[in-house]
Each structure stands twice: as structure tokens, then as C-alpha cells.
Write a structure and sequence with these properties.
By secondary structure, this protein is mainly alpha-helical. It has a domain at 42-100: Orthogonal Bundle (434 Repressor (Amino-terminal Domain)), CATH 1.10.260. It has helices at 13-28, 42-50, 54-61, 65-72, 80-91, 93-100. The relative contact order is 0.12.
Amino acid sequence: MASGAKTKRTTSGEDIGRKLLQSVREMKGNKRGRVTAVDVNDVTQARHKAGLSQAQFAEVLGISKRTLQEWEQGRRSPSGAAQALIRIAKRHPEVVREALS
């Protein structure tokens, strides 16, 4: 082979079988390869406590659904007034549900 040429690496059926068997053993042993924890911000917590969809929560706050998504994903932050509403929604989700009626 010429210098710098790529070599193709193949995995034999035996190797694949061995790896698969190892994976099954790990699953049966409740071994986890990776655990991902997701931090839920105040906006999302408030919406979940109120039991509302993004569209409903955005309507109550008087904002677009897209703005709410930006807040929940941490790309933007709510203004001071919106932060106050979110704190109220977190502490008193029943008030938010009432406002939707």
C-alpha cells in the first residue's frame, strides 16, 4: 500500500458477538454506561407545577411560545417583571391555572 493510504478496518462476526454478549451482561447487571442529569430552570419548573403546556403558559404570561422556549432552553432570560410572574407561578400554580380560565 502507498504511504498515506487509508486502511479499512473490519470487525469480525466473532468480535461483534462478543461485544453484544458483554452489553447484555451489563444490562442484566444494571450497569449503566452514562447517566445524564438535566437541570430544570425556574421557568420550566413553574410551568410544570402549573400543569400547563408551553402554549398555555405563554398565553398566561402574555408572551410568545417561542420566547418561552428560549427561556426554558436558557438562550434568553426573562425580564424583571416576567421573573416576578414566574416566581408567583412557582409558588402558587393554582393562580396561573385560574388566569387561563
